[in-house]
Amino acid sequence: MNFLEERILREGRVLPGGVLKVDGFLNHLIDTQLLNKIGAEFRRRFEDVEVTKILTIESSGIAVASIAANYFNVPVLFAKKSNGVNMDSETYSAPAYSFTHHAEFHASVAKRLLGPEDKVLILDDFLATGSAAMALVDIVQQSGAVLSGIGIVIEKGMQPGGELIRQKGYRLESIAIIDKMDAESGTIEFRKL
Ligand code: 5GP
Q1: Contact 99 CB / ligand 1 (< 6 Å)
Q2: For the chain, which terminus, N or C, has the lower number of CB atoms within 10 Å?
Q3: Atom of ligand 1 at shortest distance to CA of 18?
Q4: How much is the average pLDDT of 12-19?
Q5: Is the dihedral of CA 127, 130, 135, 137 positive or negative?
């Protein structure tokens, strides 16, 4: 069992509806030492690929991506879920559906911040249906950049996102993959790799 799986077992709570609550170290209170280890682990796993930018999505991906970015020495670009007045008018945009908010949204990135010269590593906290990750892949493709890979902190393997992404041939590295979890008993089972 790796350091993240141990932490999930110790502090994660399984909610009804297939949601894992990890707000004691990842989604609300942030354990930056743990994120440092996660960043180093992403660097190790993507040692052989070229990366010029890390792309994530607001809001919970930002902390993960920012700390990991220190290990890659590259900037972090985060897709916005709503276009405020300070957003450029020229954007790459892709639709997605939020598993936790039960709502559709558009992920947008300013065109001037991503282009064909970039090699992009997508990072996010969770992978469930794959909607958020696929919206980011769509944005990378619109920009003409190269997709170097996708890194996920916690993949819920019982949901289709991981299989969908692997089937498409994208390189996906998840630090913990949960294959089973049960709200009533609170049990969590990880994929043995
Ligand atoms: P997807 O788009 O793959 O369905 O879901 C990914 C996004 O939904 C992640 O960015 C994450 O914020 C959120 N999410 C999905 N499942 C969970 C979960 O079980 N727990 C938490 N805390 N967030 C989740």
Answers
A1: yes
A2: C
A3: 19
A4: 96
A5: positive
